[in-house]
Amino acid sequence: MPPKKGKEAQELEVSTSLTSTITDLLTEKLAEHKAEFLAEVRDIYTKYESKLENIETSVDDHELRITGLEQFADSTSTDLMAMQATLTTVVAENAKLRAKVSDLEGRSRRNNIRIIGLPENIEGSTPTAFFSQLLFDTLGLDILKSPLELDRAHRTPAAKPGPSGKPRPVVICFHDFKTRELVVRSARKLRGKLKYNDAPFLIFEDYSPEVLEQRTPYRDIMKKLYGMGLKPALRYPARLFVVLDGGSKKFLPSLKEATDFADSWARQHSTSPTEQD
């Protein structure tokens, strides 16, 4: 009979067997968890790899679009620079053409005058003859030796006003420029005294709209200078000057300078009550 194992030997055998069993179980479980973990990692990697590929594709697409936009911007910038250069040339040429047109229009009006304030319908069916005789009768033999030779005379092409409306201006074209100048100078001296059947009227030179736009701002200051006893005038197209005592001319290149001159003149020629006494 084999000898009986001792108690310690039996306990060691049981312990060894248990350890082996536990080790096998743990190894098996670890293998399972490792497989599951690797599977999850592979799945996550696959998902992120797919997303990364999509991102790369999107980035490549954006790069292509950005490159296209940069090229388009460069092309557009070049086109704009060319257009700007062309526009600068066109603007300069347009300014020259406008100046030429304004000059030509001014020359075409060179022999014209414009009469403001004459009642409607007084000229009847023969305006040229009527206004020739009217100017001759108004200015008198001291200025005009005979009725004037006029090429044409007409009202401005505006709607005819009603009975209480403001009469349209009359435009008259003289045959001779010197005669026109004589009439304008004489009318300037008689300003405020020209009348037709008690209806006062004024005679002006006939300017183009561009020239009138330049001259209009000087109306108030010229009225002020007239009221101060001075003799202001506008040289073509819009150069203001004042005729001083002795016949010298004082040119006032801007509206501000004209205003400053008028204020200074008023201060210098004002008389205080003490001085009057």
Automatic annotation (TrEMBL):
The lineage of its organism: Eukaryota, Metazoa, Chordata, Craniata, Vertebrata. This is L1 transposable element RRM domain-containing protein. Keywords: Coiled coil. InterPro entries: L1_C, Transposase_22. Residues 38-65 form a coiled coil. It comes from the Eukaryota. It comes from Knipowitschia caucasica.
